[in-house]
Amino acid sequence: MESGWIALIVLVGSCVLSWLWSLLTAPRFNVRGKHVLFTGTENPLGLAIAKKYVKKGANVSLIGPTMEILKAAQSELQKVAGEDASVFVFECELVDSKQVEQAVQEANTFHGRATDHIVYAASRRIKPGYFWEQDVALMKEAMDVNYLGAVVLIKAALPAMIEAKNRGRIVFVSSVDSLEFPVGCGACSGSKSAIRGLADSLRNELLLYNISVAVFYPGTSSYNLLDTSKSFKSPATSNEAGEERYGIVNDPINWYLYCRLLCSANEGSITTGYSTFTDQSPAATKSFDKKAKVLFNGLWFGQYSITTTWNGFLLRMLSNGVAPRNNTFLEWISLFFVGGYHFLRQKVKETSLKAPTRAGTAAHV
Fold first, then answer.
1. How many whole angstroms separate alpha carbon 68 and alpha carbon 52?
2. Top-confidence range, 205-209, 272-276, 339-343
3. CATH assignment of 27-220+277-336, given 3.40.50.720, 3.30.450.40, 3.40.50.970, 3.20.20.140?
4. Hey, which residues does 171 pair with through a beta bridge?
5. Which candidate among 103, 118, 198, 278 keeps its CA 20 to 30 Å from the CA of 153?
């Protein structure tokens, strides 16, 4: 018995020491006066992150395809930080290298310094639907925005960041879908996974220049499930008699959304429902603010992979690869239990799902 207690004390002590080491060596989060370049402030999550930055005194640049939306985001940020806040906006297509290069140059000139941080939060979501029913054109558009836009922007901004030697940082906003690969989200999961591959490569290369990289995996957003007008239903399926059905358990897509409801319970009450990055209801906005806070806490500690849900945390541990862990001892211990959890979860899904006879066609959320 004594040896068991000694082993337990050693394990717990190792986890605590690992956390203390992370605390002592944390880079903190000081962006006052620094130039932060944003994409994706047209969606509430990106805007919530930008608000956190301007509250910390950052000078921000917003780029995106629609000036009207950029101006609206600029106004929101100035409300948070005051009229004297330095917010530059530039309209451009994220996959057009010439336009993006011009945007980066003008942003650097406007703020009088090279980009210090890049936050790539641009996201094109496609409503969940079975892969064979998805429009290839929409899938290509999602890949352009979710991945190729990041490639173009970083290629344009990175030379000046390296030359400036300001210990820059690049933050990619991905999705927990790129860890979970749920039924019905194949159209987006691939492009979000590509972001992780890009981040892993950049992290290894940019260590040479003291530029850090982080990947954010936000989970499901929240709103009141009792509001049936906002509840998500997958495309209707029908039986041979032509009767439509939206079974919460029988349809794999709705089953996935139901599971996400439970897995995201830590972000709100059990009445949490499915939402997308584009939902602007008050409750969803509050959820985005919580996610932005989680991101900032992770950046403060210098974490590479940052998640907002329990399920995302477990999946990130399982698929960590060569990426640095947030708490090495705790995660290695937890791995013994994670495998059993996901085995049981998979068995529950396999015994509960029934394939639909026909799936609908998905469109943008």
1. 22
2. 205-209
3. 3.40.50.720
4. 119, 214
5. 278
